[in-house]
Amino acid sequence: MFTDPALLALHAVLRTGSFEAAAAALGVTPPAISQRIRKLEEQMGTPLIRRTTPCEPTRTGARLYRHAEEMGLLARALAADLGQPAAPATLRLAINADSLATWFIEAMAGVEGISFDLVVDDEDHSADWLRRGEVLAAISAQPGPVQGCDVLPLGALRYHATCAPGFADRHFPRGVTAEALARAPCLTFSIKDRLQIQWMEAATGTTPAPPLHILPATTAFIDAARAGLGWGMNPAPLAAPHLANGSLTEPKPGLTIDRPLFWLTSRLAAPALSDLTASVKRAAARHLVPPPQEG
Prior knowledge:
By secondary structure, the protein is an alpha/beta fold. Among the domains are: 83 residues, Winged helix-like DNA-binding domain superfamily/Winged helix DNA-binding domain (Arc Repressor Mutant, subunit A, Orthogonal Bundle); 101 residues, 3-Layer(aba) Sandwich (D-Maltodextrin-Binding Protein, domain 2), CATH 3.40.190.10. Helices cover 45% and strands 19% of the residues. A 6-stranded mixed sheet has the order 4-3-5-10-6-9, sandwiched between helices. It has a two-stranded antiparallel sheet with strand order 1-2. Strands 7-8 form a two-stranded parallel ribbon. Helix 1 packs across helix 2.
C-alpha cells in the first residue's frame, strides 16, 4: 500500500510545490515534512528535491515521484478489487492541447478516484515525457517505440484549415497558391507545431515561410481566425459550428489533415489504469475518425 510516510511527503511536496502546502495536505507540520524528506535523502544517498519555487525534483526524486504514483494507482486498483474505499490516486500524463480541448475531458470524467496532473505539449513531443519517465501515460501522435510502454491506437483527430471569409477574400482572391501563402499571416501553436506546414505542402507542394502569430491556446486559434488575424489548422469538433454558420471558411475546401493519436501507458502502471484506458477508448471512438491508411 502507498503508506510510507517519507514517500508520501516527497509526493506531496512535488505535487503541491512547497513544504508548507504538503504539510497542510498531509495534516502535519512543515518541520515534519522536512524531516521525512531528509531521512529519505539520507537513505537514497542523494538530494531528491530542489528547494526552488515551486519545488522541483532531481532525477532520482522524479523517479521516486513516479514510483509513488504507481503505488497509489496500485492501491486504488486493489481497493476496488476488494470492495474497499481508497484515497484518490494521482496520475501525471502528457497530452496535446487539442485533444484536451475536444475529447479527453470526457475520458477523464469517465473514471473515479484519479486526480489528474496534465502536462500539455505538442502531440509529436508528448511521448518524450513518457520516454524520460516524467509521466505514466501520454496521448501522442507518435506510436513509439517507447521502452516499457503499451501502445493503443485511438483514431485520428481531423483538422481543417480555416480563416475568416474576409481574410480569404484579401489573401486568397485567386485561390491558395505558394505565393499567396508566403504573404498571408499564419497561426501556429508553437515552434513545434507542424500542422500548418503539412497543409501548405499538401496544398501547393511547397513549404512557404509566412508571417507567424504564435498562439499557444486551442481556443485562441478559433478566436484569432474568426477575427481575421490569420489562417490556421483547427480541430474539426471546434471548427465545425463556425464553418456551418459562416464565421469561418476553408481557403481550400475539402483538404484536411488527419493526425493519428495513440494512448501510451507505462507497462507497470497499465493494469491499474485499465478503467481509464477503457474510458479513453470510448471517448476516442465518439470523437476521432479512423486513421489515414498507409500507402
